[in-house]
Amino acid sequence: MARSVRSLPGMRRRRLRTRFTRTRIHLRRLYHGRRPNALRFQMAVLVVDLVIIAFFIASPVLRETEAFFVVDYSVAAILGLDIAARCFAAREPLRWLRQPFVLLDLVILATLLFPNELVNFGFLRIVRLWSISQSGVLWRPLRRWGYPEWETPGRAIVNLLTFLFLATGFIYTTFFRYGSGLEGYIDAFYFTVSSVTTTGYGDITLPGTWGKLTSIVIMIIGISLFVRLAQAVFRPYKVMFPCPDCGLQRHDVDAVHCKACGHMLKIRDDGVH
What we know:
Blueprint: H1 2-32, H2 36-62, H3 68-89, H4 93-97, H5 100-113, H6 127-135, H7 140-145, H8 151-174, H9 181-196, H10 208-234, E1 238-240, E2 250-252
């Protein structure tokens, strides 16, 4: 009898460990699995992420409204729960926390938790759109629905949009009177687009040396992103299939041999269509 009483705490600890492990495995399957319930969960997370990004884009204008802080802290709670769930599901949480995309999410979370103190860094929130694109979550539906050829131009469009809104937020925060609302934000966006396209109407300019340097950086990066977008749209579609010999990843759709080393390729049809 005494032994069974003493074994109760050990049994409870083992049950807690089992539940803990099962919960981690369940979350890991939801975030990274391919079953229907996991795919539905991932789609829901993606939709929530896109809604949050829309809030990030509109936050300079929404800041003047009474509901801004309610929405801001609600988004912070959602993002915090997502980060905590992903960390809990990770096989090595400490190593996962050191990844660049995770550190970026933590910075974004800090700007949400302290919107007044970190107001000058709020423009960094839009970079989450780029991180989602790089992680591949944004393109899984395209691959699943049979449109993998849209991924490359889609990534180029996302990179361009991310830069446009990132530069707009920086210009609005740094050079325009913060709090000017929709008019000031549109002016910042108008200047960004005219600089990226090198149109340069000259009706809106950034003052001082830093303004000129900012304009130069925007023009250089903008031209590069436009060229990248044009290449992605007009060049022939390539299949992502690593060569077993040399590692070359991009090949023609009907490629039989690797162009770099001549190794025979076995590209599956379902990876092309």
